[in-house]
Amino acid sequence: MQNSGAVELKLAQHAAGLTFESLSSTAVEQAQIFVADTLSVGVAGSRVAELEPLMRAVKGWGTQTSVGVWGQNWCADPSQAVLLNAFQIHCQEFDCLHEGAVLHAMATLLPVLSAQTQISVDPVSGRQFLTAVAAGVDVACTLGLAANQGLRFFRPATAGGFGAVAGLANLRGFDAQQTLSAFGHQLAQVSGTMQGHTEGSVILPFQVGVNARAAWQSCDLTAAGFPSLANPITGKFGYLPLFEGDFDIGSLFDELGQVWRVEQLSHKPFPSGRACHGGVEGLMALRREHGFAVEQVKRITVKGPPLINHLVNRPPIQNPSPNYARLCMPYVLAKVLQHGEIEPTHYNQDALRDPVTFALSQKVTMVSDGNPDPNTFAPQTVTVELTNGECLVKVLSEVLASPSRRLGKEARDKKFKSCWALAKTTLETPDTIMAQLEQLQTLEDVRPLLARLTSNNISGESNAIKR
User: Fold this and answer.
1) Quick one: which of 156, 163, 218, 270 has the fewest CB in 10 Å?
2) Closest by CA position to 366, among listed 319, 324, 327
3) What is the pLDDT of residue 38?
4) pLDDT at position 456
5) Is residue 306 part of a domain?
6) pLDDT digits (tens, 9 = 90+) for 9-54
7) Segment 130-156, tens digit of pLDDT
8) Would residue 429 count as lying in a domain?
9) 34 and 16, same structural domain?
10) What is the CATH number of the domain that holds 96?
11) Of 353, 372, 400, which residue sits at a domain end?
12) What is the CATH classification number for the domain harbouring 385?
């Protein structure tokens, strides 16, 4: 590889050279926490109805049966299992994200690390696994943070795919030049349109899956010696100029190895777009504080940055698709008014058709505060106007489960167990895997832990994908 750009090489060197010993204790702790959260969300995703047609298509794409599909009772070809598991992570809008980068880095990353671990002849230790997690999150979020303007393409898929390459390259033991080569192959495959978000389409999690699969293929191409590119990140038609346009990545280099992006991830305590979370939290808080009844509500207004308006200020419609509803603030807040909370079952067909929900959703409006930062979720203000003329206001400078307001262990455990219970097939009780995930850095072999993400009756020929 000749004439490699400084940016590309710097990212490749960071990903390839990262070791467990260089990580901070907080980075290790948060990596373990978000591995657990992401795995549970991926298991829960096995339940969604939209997965069925995707599975029918994927079953004809590969003949190997070596990697488990989470929350189910069968295995698939590694690259196809990667696609499905990534889809399952993001399909319920329940997965963690880096708010500053506007990026769900774990959704593309964890499926490829899991697949590599499962097919590895040698044991993969928890320390190796967590190091690869940190490398992948660092690269994906650095690309996301480099953007100086709002989303042009679906960054969780596009930048997320490069993060998956970085993590997988680290786990496979690639050197910097091999990692750079894999970045080049990823550019050749990167995709992710915001049209899916505009329409509230299930294409969004599919794009996450496609880019995760591309990361797997990119590393395979490198391992096979297939020629690549020298400047895939900053070249004239490289990732940042083409997909982000206005960017500044040089200022982030001094933070590589000093600031761990995995420490900056936010949980999603509610199964909806992160941009809905301020509205949900504010409405729930006002309801607890003032105890008003549903019929007393005249209007709900959520005021926040342009980003949240761009992502979830969509008109309520009758009989929306599940993905449209998850990304629709009026729908989500209508369910919170009805039930006092929002949960995955509120996107089932009967719930989506509920005329009461549609009527309540008409009471919700959103307003932009004109914040000049195109990539921020806060502050947000939730205002509830009552029929008696009273006006209740909740101001959120930071949204719940952001790094400055971390989700506590009790809430994390509750979410894990509720997600685990949504598995499409019956899995063993979650207590053992929860305990192991809390001590992931001490495990000498992660493979038995990952095997618990699929049904215990997966074995031998019963795993084979029937064509």
Assistant:
1) 270
2) 327
3) 96
4) 54
5) yes
6) 999 999 999 999 999 999 999 999 999 999 999 999 999 998 988 9
7) 999 999 999 999 999 999 999 999 999
8) no
9) yes
10) 1.10.4100.10
11) 400
12) 3.30.1330.120
Are the C-beta atoms of residues 307 and 375 closer than 8 Å to each other? yes
Cβ neighbours of 426 (radius 10 Å): 10
From CA 363, how far away is CA 195, in angstroms rounded? 27
Burial (CB count within 10 angstroms: exposed 0-12, middle 13-18, buried 19+), residue 121: exposed
Handedness of CA 451, 455, 459, 463 (dihedral sign): negative
Helices (H), 190-276: 195-198, 203-223, 239
Residue pair 441/434 in contact (Cβ under 8 Å)? The answer is: no
Q: How confident is the model at residue 7 (pLDDT cuts 50, 70, 90)?
A: confident
Give the per-residue pLDDT at 457: 42
Instruction: Please list, residue by residue across 247-272, b when 16 or more beta carbons sit within 10 angstroms of its beta carbon and e when fewer do.
Output: bebeebeeebeeebbbbbbbbbbbbb
**DSSP secondary structure string for all residues of 8-55:** HHHHHHHHHH--GGGS-HHHHHHHHHHHHHHHHHHHHGGG-TTHHHHH
> Rounded mean pLDDT of 378-383?
96
Reply yes or no on whether the pLDDT at 466 is more than 50: no
Domain carrying residue 302: 274-400
Q: Read off the pLDDT of each residue in 168-172 and give the average, rounded to a whole number.
A: 98
Whole-number Å distance between alpha carbons of 382 and 297: 13
Cα(78)–Cα(244) distance, rounded to whole angstroms? Answer: 30
Which two tokens mark 302? Answer: 């959520």
Contact call for residues 396 and 379 (beta carbons, < 8 A): yes
Residue 441 falls within a domain, yes or no? no
Q: Looking at the chain, how many residues does it have?
A: 467
Q: Alpha-carbon torsion 285, 286, 290, 292, what sign?
A: negative
Answer whether the bond into residue 78 is a cis peptide, omega within 30°.
no
Helix, strand, coil tally for the chain in percent (to 5): 55, 10, 35
Q: For 433-450, what is each residue's pLDDT tens digit?
A: 999 999 999 999 999 999
Q: Is 230 exposed, middle or buried (0-12, 13-18, 19+ CB in 10 A)?
A: middle
Average pLDDT score, the chain = 93
Q: Do the beta carbons of residue 185 and residue 239 sit within 8 Å?
A: no
Edge to edge, the sheet with strand 364-368 lists 364-368, 297-304, 380-386, 391-396
Question: Which of 52-61, 74-83, 382-391, 395-404 has the least mean pLDDT?
Answer: 52-61
